[in-house]
UniProtKB/TrEMBL annotation:
Catalysis: reaction(s): a peptidoglycan chain = a peptidoglycan chain with N-acetyl-1,6-anhydromuramyl-[peptide] at the reducing end + a peptidoglycan chain with N-acetylglucosamine at the non-reducing end
Name of the protein this chain belongs to: Endolytic murein transglycosylase
InterPro entries: MLTG-like
Function according to Swiss-Prot or TrEMBL: Functions as a peptidoglycan terminase that cleaves nascent peptidoglycan strands endolytically to terminate their elongation.
Keyword Disulfide bond: no
Protein family according to the UniProt entry: Belongs to the transglycosylase MltG family.
Keyword terms: Cell membrane, Cell wall biogenesis/degradation, Lyase, Membrane, Transmembrane, Transmembrane helix
UniProt-annotated site: Important for catalytic activity, residues: 228
EC number: 4.2.2.29
Broad class of enzyme this protein falls into: lyase
Family matches, as PANTHER family: ENDOLYTIC MUREIN TRANSGLYCOSYLASE
Length: 340
């Protein structure tokens, strides 16, 4: 009874401390301090980035609480701009201010990179939409000195991207999204690092830092999911298949890795294609390929971090568009025969 009482008191004390901390973080940093603090929110800032800026300027006490509070209240519509805030404002007042601000100016350059594209296709897209040339983009993303500098600045980047067998060092890290710039002309480093920052934010927001996989492995898994799945439900289930195969040491044998190994898109993967020796070809190697095989979107990254719990080891995409999952090879072969 004494032990039980101590446990109850400990849990109650922890809950009270947590509640007190959260309510304190939601409230003003200093309700008696009305001194104006000038805060600048850049264009393209996420809730994570905004929270970090507010904490650095001392108008909130915890950027993580800000991010979770914004998500809990489903707040959106924050505007880039200059703000006059005070430490006496609570989170609700700060959020209201951030939603009523004025954008600096209209974007002079806007374009979208679709999910799942190979890096060479991303480069072509950027060159067609901006003042940048394919040649300078290609040279920069392969510049070892520049890549080494990026590794020192971005936690998600690891030395593995410099492996000579990696086809494109930044494959998987160039986040597919809409990009807006206030300038008509941009620098090549500005473009690359904008995309890397988006990827870093998505990984952080989805808890990649606490995964058993490295950032490189997470993006590799996500890229396979992006190449295989047609909707969010499939993403989670296919992620579960990948997890199950990795756990028992079974070759992944995913067709998109074969296409990437060849550097050629196939309408249908043939047996002769799968015999190609490459560190990307999951019919040729066990485990994950040496790196990502495309640039995955947030839904695939989230699926890679949250695989569905099931016993499926196989799946088949039928010509009808339906996908059939199986636990055994016999079930899989019957599905292929039935629905081909």
């Amino acid at each position: 009874m004494i032990c039980l009482l101590l446990i109850i008191l400990g849990v109650a004390g922890g809950a009270y401390a947590g509640y007190h901390y959260v309510t304190g973080a939601i409230g003003p940093v200093d309700e008696n301090d009305d001194e104006i603090v000038h805060v600048t929110i850049p264009i393209g800032s996420t809730s994570t980035g905004i929270g970090r800026i507010l904490e650095e300027n001392g108008v909130i006490s915890d950027s993580s609480i800000f991010r979770y509070y914004v998500r809990f209240k489903n707040e959106t519509g924050f505007q880039a701009g200059d703000y006059e805030l005070t430490k006496s404002m609570n989170l609700d007042q700060i959020i209201d201010e951030l939603k009523e601000g004025t954008i600096y100016q209209e974007y002079q350059l806007s374009f979208t990179i679709p999910e799942g594209r190979w890096l060479e296709d991303v480069i072509t897209r950027i060159a067609s939409e901006t003042n940048l040339e394919e040649e300078e983009l290609t040279e920069k993303v392969n510049d070892e000195e520049y890549l080494t500098e990026l590794i020192s600045r971005f936690e998600m980047l690891e030395d593995v991207i410099l492996d000579e067998e990696i086809r494109w060092p930044l494959e998987g890290y160039m986040f597919p999204s809409r990009y807006d710039f206030v300038e008509e002309e941009i620098e090549v480093e500005q473009m690359i690092e904008s995309m890397l920052r988006r990827t870093a934010t998505v990984l952080t927001d989805n808890g990649a830092g606490s995964s058993d996989y490295s950032y490189h492995e997470i993006l590799t898994i996500a890229s396979i999911i992006e190449g295989e799945a047609r909707n969010d439900e499939e993403r989670l289930r296919i992620s579960g298949v990948i997890e199950n195969r990795l756990r028992i040491g079974m070759p992944l044998q995913m067709d998109p890795t074969v296409a990437y190994a060849h550097g050629e898109h196939f309408s249908r993967t043939l047996i002769e294609h799968t015999e190609f020796a490459s560190p990307y070809n999951t019919y040729h190697i066990n485990g994950l390929p040496i790196g990502p095989i495309n640039n995955p979107g947030e839904a695939s990254i989230r699926a890679a971090l949250n695989p569905e719990d099931h016993k499926y080891l196989y799946f088949y995409h039928a010509p009808s568009g339906n996908v059939y999952f199986s636990e055994t090879l016999d079930e899989h072969n019957r599905a292929v025969q039935q629905y081909r």
